[in-house]
Design a protein that fits this description.
A hairpin with a 2-residue loop joins strand 1 and strand 2. The protein has one domain. It is mainly α. It is about 80% helix and about 0% strand. Strands 1-2 form a two-stranded antiparallel sheet. The protein contains six helices and two strands; from the N terminus they run H-H-E-E-H-H-H-H. Keywords: Membrane, Transmembrane, Transmembrane helix.
Length: about 180
Amino acid sequence: MNGFYEIMNLESLWTLWFWIVHVVAWSMTSHFVLGVPFDAVLQANREKEEFGPWARHTDAMLRASIFRIVTYFRRSGAWIVGVWSFVLASLFTFALLWDNEFSIALLTVFLPLTAIYTITIRWALWIDANEFDPAELRLIVRKLRFWIQLFGVLAIIVAAACAILYWLHIHVPVG
C-alpha cells in the first residue's frame, strides 16, 4: 500500500503521472476537433474526387457531432456552466487561499481546457447557424485544430512555469 502512495502522491506538479495526463489531455483535445478524429479530415482532404467515401463520412461525422454539441448545449448548457463554474471556483479557492498543490495542478489542466471547450462550443454554434460545403467545413476544422494546438502548447508552458514558481515558493526562503 505504501508503494501506491509513492506512485500516486498528491505532490502532483512533480510527478510523471501529472505530466502524462496533461499531455494526453491536450493530445486528445487536438485530435478530436469538434468531436471528429482529425485523421479522418486529413484522409478526406487527400482524396482525388471531391465527394469520395472519406469526404462523405467525414462530413456526416462533422455535421452529427456539431448537431450533438449544439443540442446538448442548448438543452443543458446553463446547468453545465453553473456546475463547472462551482468546480473551478473551488479549485481556485483551494489553490490560491490554501496553497494546495493538487488543486494548482488540476487548475493548470482544467482552466485551459475550459477555454478550449468554450471556443469549440462557440464554433459549433457558428457552424450550425451557417451553411458550409464539406471542403469549407474541413478547412474550419483545420484552423480550429491549429489554434487548439497553439493554446495547448502555451498551456503546458504555463503549467511548467506554475510548477517552477510553486517549487520556488515552497523551497526558497524569502527575505
